[in-house]
Amino acid sequence: MSDDAEVVWRPDPERVAASRMAAFRSWLRDEGLVDAADYDELWRWSVGEPGAFWGAVARFFDVTFHSPPDDVLPDVAMPETRWFPGATLNYAEQALRPGDGKGDDDVAVIFRREDGLRTELTYGELRRRVAAMCAALAELGVGRGDRVAALVPNAPQTLVAFLATASLGAVWSSCSPDFGVRAAADRFAQIEPVVLVACDGYVYNGKAVDVRPTVAALRAQLPTVRAVVGIPFGGAALPDAVGFDDLLARHDGAPLEFEAVPFDHPLWVLYSSGTTGLPKGIVQGHGGIVLEHVKAVGLQLDLKPGERFFWFTTTGWMMWNFLIGGLLVGSTVVLYDGSPGHPSLRSLWDLAAEERVAVSGTSAPFVQACLKDGLTLDPSALPELRAVGSTGAPLSTDGFRWLSRNLGPSVQIASLSGGTDACTAFVGPAPDVPVWLGELSRPALGAALAAFDEAGHPVIGEVGELVLTAPLPSMPVSFWGDTDGSRLRAAYFEDFPGVWRHGDWITITPRGSAVIHGRSDSTLNRGGVRMGTAEFYRVVEAHPAVLDSLVIDTSSAGSSDGELLCFLVLAPGVALDEVEPELRKALRAELSPRHVPDRFVAVGDVPRTLTGKKCEVPVKRILAGVAPEKAVSREALRNPAALDPFVALAGAR
């Protein structure tokens, strides 16, 4: 790995001096905790003294504890780490309490919908609505520890319902309304909710979608639900539901109160992708999320009171939970519901310009789509924009170049990587560290990141397993229903005892940055040369005629001939034999001769989970002869029919 990689963004000294990161370092020095000259020194202290670091984060951001902690971190052993024992607090109180940027007249939420609908809520209005909904949920029988499930759009009503749920010490869990009945039921039935919050419909790609039949069918599969709260998002009322607006009106003026709960009390349940079996319910706690998110948005992204924070997401992706964390530091969160490409790929960039967004986030596939579409942007139209975040998949070098070319040198390319499992990024941006082409700048503060070889030894400049050698406070409190912790231990701690194995390939460069190569459980291992699938996709999907692709290495999937197969979704009117020679040449030159596929196969679509991830491992298992119903739950797929060609191919092998 070269040490002279191209720098695509450099920190501005004046902006660094005004950053929260600089203020934090100065505060640490004044408090006599550590005198860190730069980010790298601060990171080393944060992972070497995690108790001192996280205690400092709590104090610096003035986290409100009802009962103070007895300690911060009595023992760093994983799993079953105990954080802030004895402390009580409430996430919603931290988000809603008055402070910088949170005056009654300060804007808390801006909402935009694809069809042009726009609304705002001030912090005063948000507090008033949360108080009313909290009283309404209590009247419906919701109490501490009860679960509230939600099939909802990315809208202010959803945020209000979540904060009200958290205020009561109840547990939130949401899915996007485009989830099918089986997919939503597979998730929600596990947690036995007492209230279901649901919308009547949503707007996507220019079309109104009625979800009332889905809600009715879902309700029938949730016998513990005592009441349905209906959000008239599509303009109609849900039958047999109490209206969201009616509840707010009935309880308007209720006092804003917060249930003080233990640090690790469940805040929400997120879910694994559910490609095999039921999705795992990932439980995260009030305190862990507060601490991790004030650090992530306040220090790593440098969000300040009053700044506007946007990320394109749905309520079924952890980035919704991450986005609303902007409230914890007094920023304005911008919510958008609809298609990112309607009426064109320019729409989200226009939104960022019109709403004066400071930090705007999206996914790597969206950036790639803008690149392929030939979209050009005018940096002068985005004067407030200072950082663009990208996650969900590794951002290609071409994606870095497109962002740099279209946004100019003053906008930081904040590529980050982490996961639902801890609802944060392990590696990504910092306001005082450069951005190198194709690389994620640094491990996040507090994230004891390393790349391990197969023997469990850390490596630099080589591909290894992404691991964390010390705990983060937002790691799962538990998996739902995993009473003895065996499923959680098997998921993260089986390969390297006491070390969190995340399931990604990563290279940590000699300069301290990182490159993510894709999932380690779908690695391409050709002639002993290991490569993540992301490396392959960067080359293949750079071809203008390739709309999507899926690569499968069958050499470890029970196949005797060990083929490397590349499945391509081609642009209309393009024949496979037109692009195959060019792809073979590019892969040979940019990867290695070993990584040129044995076969290219044209398909109509690539199977993806409901959260958009390519189904590499399930397809690999199907091609190895595993029965499709055992390899993947079709209800967990966004496009179940896309699996059929792979099932047919397996039958012909």
TrEMBL record:
Enzyme class, UniProt record, top EC level: ligase
Enzyme nomenclature, EC number: 6.2.1.16
PROSITE patterns to which the protein is assigned, alphabetical: AMP_BINDING (PS00455)
Database matches in Gene3D superfamilies: 3.30.300.30, N-terminal domain of ligase-like
Biological processes, Gene Ontology terms: lipid metabolic process
Ranges of residues in domain Acetyl-coenzyme A synthetase N-terminal: 39-95
Keywords: ATP-binding, Ligase, Nucleotide-binding
Pfam families according to UniProt: ACAS_N, AMP-binding, AMP-binding_C
Highest taxon, organism lineage: Bacteria
A single MF term (Gene Ontology): ATP binding
AMP-binding enzyme C-terminal domain residues: 539-613
Residue span, AMP-dependent synthetase/ligase domain: 105-471
Family per record: Belongs to the ATP-dependent AMP-binding enzyme family.
PANTHER family per the UniProt record, alphabetical: ACETOACETYL-COA SYNTHETASE (PTHR42921)
Protein name as it appears in the record: Acetoacetate--CoA ligase
Organism whose genome encodes this protein: Jiangella aurantiaca
